[in-house]
Each structure stands twice: as structure tokens, then as C-alpha cells.
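So, can you check what follows?
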Amino acid sequence: MIKRLLLIALLICANSTYAQLLWIEGVVDCGKWSSARKANSAQYMEHVLLGTINGMSLGVGIEIWAGTDGNKVSREQLYLWIDGWCQKNPLENINSGAWYFANERTKGAYGKMQNSK
């Protein structure tokens, strides 16, 4: 009886979690990003961003770094791209910027792949 109730509870939780947006702890907002980059103290944030891009690429199985044109971008180019994105979107966070970066690099294929999973 207890095993059945536990199984039902797990199924309910799994279904409702899948249907909702997920909260990600430790997200870096654009204000913190920009300030840290200007102060030359953004190393941990840069590593978070690298891990985010790599995870996004692995998660949907699409090449983000080389994009659809095969021209690989460097870490520094990514950081500069996020700098510009944050300047235009100061109330956002770098995870949102990473999503737009991935979509731009893949000409929209990242968003389509993400939505199909």
C-alpha cells in the first residue's frame, strides 16, 4: 500500500515538474555580469556561462560553438557577445543571453530542438 502511494506521488510530481518552468539557482543577472566584467573579476561567472553553453549543446545534441556555418567562436567572443546582450537587456540574466546566443549561432535550430524535446 505504501509503495503504491509513493509511486503515485512520484508520478504526480514528475508530470507536474515536467510541465512547468524550472527555477535555476545561482543565475547571474546582467547587472552583476557587467559590473564584474568591468572590474575584471568575472572569472567564476564566465565559467558558469561556459558550462551553460556546453550543457545546452549536450542537452539537445546540437553544435552551438561552431554554429551552423562551422565558424567556431572563442570564449572571449562569447563573453563580448554576452556583454553586448546585457547592455541591451540589463534586467535579464546571462542564462537568457545564452539562449539567444545559441539560437543566433544555430540560426534558430537550438530553439526548435529544445522545444521538440
The radius of gyration is 18 Å. Residues 2-19 form the longest helix (18 residues). Residues 3-20 have pLDDT under 50 and may be disordered.
